Amino acid sequence: MNIILDRDYHEVVGKIIKFEMNNEMRLGQELLNRIPYNYIGEQEELFKKQGDYNPLAMSDTDLEALIPKLNFNLPDTKLRLMEKKFIENKDYWNLFELIKDEHPYNLTNDFAVYSYCRSMCRLPIMADEYKRINQDLKSLKKSMKKIKSKSMKKLHGNYEIKF
Question: For residue 83, how many other CB atoms are within 10 A of its CB?
């Protein structure tokens, strides 16, 4: 289990290239959202963000939702405003998020769009990155098989988590 958690995976694995999870891992991910967190600290952090820089105190997700609305056509080029800005800043993740739902790109798979965004930002995926992605996927499949093959000694019981 620690092999899965401690490994530093390529940024594509999990976000763009989905892999098959065991039921135990999927259940753990679903239950992770139910763990209580510090709600008061989060609200204090949002209150601190309100100021001269961000007078409306909009969250990052609200600000990201406005990006596609700013994607105007530019004269003298085929690129649009936000695409050009992301390419100049070599921000291929935001470029990927921007164009993955547009017409010609939504017909292809996500990895092809990701590699296209990387090449547009002049950061193409190298051969060693392809090898690393394949190795990461192989190790995940191998670890999932190993977890599935392990037998549980105790099948029934009462479990309690105290906070």
Answer: 20
Query: Which token pair is 105?
Result: 């790109």
Q: How many other C-beta atoms lie within 10 A of the C-beta of residue 63?
A: 11
Triad 93, 99, 101: Cα angle to 5°: 115
Whether the CB-CB separation of 12 and 115 falls below 8 Å is answered with no
Predicted TM-score (pTM) of this structure: 0.67
Distances (CA, A) of 37 to 40, 41, 43, 103: 9, 9, 12, 40
Render pLDDT for 117-136 as a digit per residue (tens, 0 to 9).
999 999 999 999 999 999 98
- Which residue has 């993740």 as its token pair? 93
CA pair distance 93, 110, nearest whole angstrom: 12
Q: Cβ of 98: how many Cβ atoms within 10 Å?
A: 22
**What gap in Å lies between CA 159 and CA 33, rounded to an integer?**
18
Pick the closest to residue 117 from 102, 127, 137 (CA basis). Answer: 102
